[in-house]
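User: Can you help me understand a structure? I only have the sequence.
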Amino acid sequence: MTEQQPSAPARAESGHSAGGVEHVNEPHHDQFVVVGNHLAQHPELSLTAIGLAVHIQSLPARTPVGIKTLAAKFPEGEIRVAAALRELEAHGYLARTKERLQSGRVVTRTISYNRPGVAAARAAMKPAAPRPAPPSPGSKVSASAPDAGAALDAALDVLAGLRAHDPRLLLAERDVHRLAPAVSAWLDRGVPPAAVQRTLTNALPKDPILNPAAFLAHRLRALLPPPLPAPAHPSTPVRPDPLQTCEGCDRAFRAPGPGRCRDCRPVGVAA
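Assistant: Let's start by predicting it. Here is the structure, written out as C-alpha cells:
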C-alpha cells in the first residue's frame, strides 16, 4: 500500500496558520533612512520605482543620481531606471530641471521629495505678493506675517495631534493634507494653534464619529472666526486758530491771520 500523505497544510509552531509575513524588527541607531508607507506601499508605483526612490532618499545631498550613474550601480539597466525616474516624477517624489551654469554647461538639478503632498501644499500656499521694502531708519516696525511654510507645518501638526485628544479624530494622511489649508485660514486670522485644537475638540458628540474628516471639515468651515479688525488710528486733533491782536481795539482774538476782531469789523464783513 502506498503511504498516504496528509493534504492539510502544517500549522506554524506559534499556532498561526502558515503563510504571510512575520517581522523581526531591530532598532536602528545609525545608517538608516525614514520612509513613509505612502511610498513603500504605493499602489501605482512599480517595485523598481519604489526601490529607486528609497535609494535616492538615502543618499547624501549632491550625490549624482543620473540615469547612467544609477544604471551602473544596479542590474536594471538604463531603460528601466529611466522609466522608474519618470514614474517618481509623475507622482511628485522627484523633480528634475535643466540649468545652465555660468560656464555655459547644462546640468540637471534633481530634487527628491519624501512627502510630496506636503511640498505641493506648501507651494500652493506661498504668497504671490513680493516682500515689502525694509523700513526706513527711525520708523516703527510691525510684526511680520508668519512664514507660509511654518503656517502649513503648524496646521499639519494641529490635525495630526487631534487623535491625542480623542481617538475618534484619527485622520488618514491624505485627509490631513486636504484639511491643512482650512486650518491655515484660522492661523492667518490670528488664532493660535492651541485654540484651533480646543475648538475642534470641544463638546464632541457622544455617538461614534464615522467620518472624522467630514466632521472636522464642517467645524473648520462653520466656526471660522472673522478676521481681526484693523487697528484704529487715532484721529488727529484739530488745532485752534492762533491768537491775533485786533488792529482796531488791541484785543486778542483767534483767527487764521492778522486783522480785526468781530466787534471791530464792518457789519457786512462780520456777517
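Now, to help you interpret it: Residues 262 and 270 are 6 Å apart (CA to CA). The beta strands are 94-100, 106-112, 243-245, 252-254. Let me know which part you'd like to focus on.
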